Amino acid sequence: MKRPAALTRGRWAPLLGLWLLCLWGLGLPQGASADTSPPAVAAQAPKVLHYAFEAPESGFDPAQISDLYSSIVVAHIFDGLYEYDYLARPFKIRPNVATAMPEVDDDFKTWTIRLRPGIYFADDPAFKGQRRELVAQDYVFSLKRYFDPAVKSPGYSSVTELGLVGLEEVREQALQRRQPFDYNREVPGVRALDRYTLQFKLKAPRPRFLFSLVGGDGLGALAREVVTHYGDSIAEHPVGTGPFRLASWRRSSLIRLERNPGFREQTYEAEPNADDAEGQALLQRFRGRRLPMIDAVEVSIVNESQPRWLAFLNGQFDLLTRMPPEFAPLAAPKGVLAPHLAKRDIQMQRILTPDRTYQYFNMQDPVVGGYTPDKVALRRAISLATDVKSEIATVRRGQAIPAQSLVSPGSWGYDPALKTELSDFDLPRAQALLDLFGYVDRDGDGLREQPNGQPLTLELGSQPDPLSRAFDENWKKNMDALGLRLRVKVGQWQEQLKAARAGQLMLWAVGSRDSSPDPEGALSTLYGPAAGASNLARFQHAPYDRIVQRMRDLPDGPERLALLREAQLMAVAYMPYKVRVHRIVTDLNHPWLIGYRPPIFSRQFWQYLDIVPREASAGPGD
Fold first, then answer.
1. How far apart are CA 561 and CA 553, in angstroms?
2. β-sheet bridge partners, residue 248
3. Per-residue three-class SS string for 23-60
4. What is residue 355's three-state secondary structure?
């Protein structure tokens, strides 16, 4: 029999849900379980990984994306100069298309990298039948695209802070003269010294510049003729040198990638820690295998958590990443895999992720924004009235820990003993703050007004899925107790992101995950020049910006750590973000999918997976 097609946006989910609920939870004899063996397939059938994203992608142009889901796809299509070792924990960086680690000179201001010859782009009509080799100039062109005003890259603010010599001037010339960006103009900041040698020159020391060169979802190499060929539709036609290529795409529904037939010869190699039994077992099992080990990946977009969960249980999805928290008590009570799943040889991976969830306040909004004492008091009162522990217990079902700052677990400088006001729940103190600064109920309706007597209404951006509704309802109870009126503005996630970048949302709850172990990425979400991009709160505070700038120049050490602590406390004091939690992510996979390990900072993992018949799935590393 054929394997059922993957769910797309809840298609026939109600019928599937009723059938599975009866089969799984109600109608089975004690000790029995539904037959989830992989369907019988022909010996030569392709190995296809099936799983789901919980939110839609935006496109596949590295310079035009900022969401996690698009980044995962892009990371498997494009090649970064360097990559994270798949098995090393917490992390190890190694050459990818580079021949060796960078040559670093001039006090961390000059970085020279040599590429391996003989790496080719996937075949594409843009190359007019020619086989196109990856060269240093491709990275020069790809980096320049972040500075091109016509690209409107959300990553521009992060890339410009690297301080690449000369690129900002080319951008300003295009803006001032209203001319196309001059890609042919050579600049010292990034240039090809020869066909395979790339050099970066920075205005100031950047000891951690290497982190910016890791992974294809950041500085991935595009060929200029591909961008020219596809023009404005380049996000629909990603052509890279990575292990997979885009085969088909139904926007916000189904993404299919297939093995890149022209992918270079690359074998499974890794350096897990000596005391990492799981990593060592995986290395022993797969060392020397040609990558990728699977033939294709099909990613469905399933916003609703119940269909995603049930489709996994039914074997439609081989992998369930980010298990919906409402099912945690069923799947992993007290963090231990449930017996009914263990009997089916389902595997569980559970990690505290390097991320944070936060609710931002639009600092330009006339109600919640601003830097005067009364506005700061309003934001801090809202924070104090937000019961994070209740959110973790009821909505997240224990799948998180309270956050004390933007800095995430696993990042340099993270201190698990740090305690700040962010984790406090103190309703009397919150009420006293509002009373002190004139946010009182003047008309006796039980709701507070602004100090000038005008109505006070909080407007929260949200999404239409059940989990978002649960968060909204939980937070509304907190605001009701504080005497604040809350209105929820519901829209699709991509619509809300556009509105947030344009400064059109007063409040919105989002999450972000670090792509490197350095906390600079987290701190940059409040960096003034990044307003409207990574800085959704549009926080503008010169002393904070100076701290971030100084931290970039310093090597890791006591001076940098002291500045990090100052930035953390400054962000808490002004409260442009109510940082809530660091999430615990639980991933599940069926036994026929082997080799899966949740990446920590990387987005890549597909090429390291294998799919085998169920009867052959037992063994080291399972």
1. 13
2. 256
3. HHHHCCCCCCCCCCCCCCCCCCCCCEEEEEECCCCCCC
4. strand
Residue at 294: amino acid letter: I
Whether 532 contacts 503, CB under 8 Å: yes
SS3 187: strand
DSSP 86-129: SS-SS--EEESSBSSSPEEETTTTEEEEEBPSS-BPPP-GGGTT
Q: Which pLDDT score, from 0 to 100, does residue 287 have?
A: 97
Q: How many whole angstroms separate alpha carbon 347 and alpha carbon 588?
A: 6
The answer to whether residue 622 scores a pLDDT higher than 70 is no
Q: Which two tokens stand for residue 234?
A: 């380049």
CA nearest neighbour of 241 among 220, 257, 225: 220
Q: What is the pLDDT of residues 182-239, one digit of tens each?
A: 999 999 999 999 999 999 999 999 999 999 999 988 899 999 999 999 999 999 999 9
Helix (H) or strand (E) holding 440: none
- Tokens in use for 309? 């969960």
DSSP 212: G
What 3 state SS string does 252-311 have? CCEEEEEECCCCCCCECCCCCCCCCHHHHHHHHHHCCCECCCCCEEEEEECCCHHHHHHH
Distance CA 145, CA 470 (A): 40
Q: Residue 432 carries which DSSP code? A: H
Mean pLDDT of 517-539: 92
If phi > 0 it is left, if psi is from -120 to 50 it is alpha, else beta; for residue 83 that is beta
CB-based burial, 402-421: b 16+ in 10 Å, e otherwise: bbbbbbbbbbebbeeeeebe
- Take residue 414 and report the two structure tokens written for it: 């993270």
Lowest mean pLDDT among 32-36, 182-186, 439-443, 459-463: 32-36
Q: Two tokens at 45? A: 């059938």
Report d(CA 402, CA 578) in Å as an integer.
Answer: 11
Q: Are 384 and 573 in contact (CB under 8 A)?
A: no
Predicted confidence at residue 515, as pLDDT, reads 86
d(CA 256, CA 247): 6
pLDDT tens column, 320-373: 999 998 899 999 998 899 999 999 999 999 999 999 999 999 999 999 999 999
What DSSP letter does each residue of 603-617 carry, written as one string?
---GGG-EE--GGG-
- In 3-state terms, what secondary structure has residue 204? coil
Which 8-state DSSP code applies to residue 423?
A: G
Q: 592 near 613, Cβ under 8 Å?
A: yes
User: Which positions ≥6 away from 136 have C-beta within 8 Å?
Assistant: 115, 192, 193, 194, 195, 196, 197, 198
CA distance 215 to 131: 24
What span, in angstroms and rounded, lies between the C-alpha atoms of 382 and 425?
Answer: 10
The number of angstroms, rounded, from the C-alpha of 75 to the middle of its chain's C-alpha atoms is 11
CA 277 to chain centre: 28
The H or E element spanning position 583 is strand 577-589
| pLDDT value at residue 41 | 45
User: What is the residue type of 31?
Assistant: G
SS3 content of the chain, % helix, strand, coil (to 5): 35, 20, 45
- Cα 365 from Cα 576, distance rounded (Å): 11
d(CA 226, CA 238): 8
What spatial distance separates the first Cα and last Cα of the chain, rounded to whole Å?
26
Whether the per-residue pLDDT at 465 is higher than 90: the answer is: no
Query: What angle, 0 to 180 degrees and rounded to 10, lies between the N-to-C axes of helices 466-482 and 373-384?
Result: 120
